[in-house]
């Protein structure tokens, strides 16, 4: 039986979303001859009962398919507003649009809301995880994370040369909310000297001692410090953080202010807050492959009528897990004694405590 499938992207954008859309449309059209419609701006589009017809060649430019290397999402996205306040209208839209199933691509926050709506309306839902924070549980990788890591590493590479040229401590503040995956992965790959993440408390004293050791023992006159936006100090430094006005400084600026005079030699510091730069750009090969596999597998689940499932990457392949199981264990945080943290320590990187 021919199906009418809706697809939406929700939450913050990231590279790889268009690759999911491309894979869903291609597989559903070529293999099953289904009708695929995009829902613009996620639940807002559902509320307004808007759809965008999607077909295999609708976005071709003289035979060139741009979705494979286009960042962001052609469907638009939204990560604000009180969606559940309009639940009754949104629930009615699923039937009004004649949907047989819905594929939702989002992070743990947006998937939680859509899953709640799905339960209320008895929707046929398949979820695909995407987030540069990589904090959706039960999946080893989420769409957008690999590209974001590469973007941060590229920034670290560029800043390292300036730091070395001017004998400066360069502080790079990255996203991640309460999870330190992005900071930890990019810091190790970028050759950082310090990585501060929410899961491992740090002390200004320990940080300063590490910078002093680099200078006095190893004759290093510069350093690279990667700070996650949610990095948390030990109890002894909490008062200083509280006194730092968020309007004046984020975590990166706070660190810069604290270490500028932590030794007899004044430390020249500079702060780079990468911000939304981390969300943009052309998706990496790994994100393209992951997105394509997730998109194709989501269509297969609908063909098998296996709903209320989220695609996850485990042991080198895409598998289906109950959406609620993933939400119950999200956000997935960095384990303080994980292999990557231990690797960072073995490389002489200060990650916290002391």
UniProtKB/TrEMBL annotation:
Coiled coil: none annotated. It is found in: Cytoplasm. Its cofactor is Mg(2+). Substrate binds at residues 131-133, 168, 175-177, 229, 270, 276-279. It catalyses: beta-D-fructose 6-phosphate + ATP = beta-D-fructose 1,6-bisphosphate + ADP + H(+). Its EC number is 2.7.1.11. Pathway: Carbohydrate degradation; glycolysis; D-glyceraldehyde 3-phosphate and glycerone phosphate from D-glucose: step 3/4. Residues 4-302 form the Phosphofructokinase domain. InterPro entries: ATP_PFK, ATP_PFK_prok-type, Phosphofructokinase_CS, Phosphofructokinase_dom, Phosphofructokinase_III, PKF_sf. Keywords: ATP-binding, Cytoplasm, Glycolysis, Kinase, Magnesium, Metal-binding, Nucleotide-binding, Transferase. It comes from the Bacteria. SUPFAM superfamilies: Phosphofructokinase. It holds the Pfam family PFK. GO terms for biological process: canonical glycolysis; fructose 1,6-bisphosphate metabolic process; fructose 6-phosphate metabolic process. The active site is at residue 133. Mg(2+) binds at residue 108. ATP binds at residues 12, 80-81, 107-110. Homodimer or homotetramer. Catalyzes the phosphorylation of D-fructose 6-phosphate to fructose 1,6-bisphosphate by ATP, the first committing step of glycolysis. HAMAP family: Phosphofructokinase_III (MF_01976). Belongs to the phosphofructokinase type A (PFKA) family. Mixed-substrate PFK group III subfamily. This is ATP-dependent 6-phosphofructokinase. It comes from Anabaena sphaerica FACHB-251. The gene is pfkA.
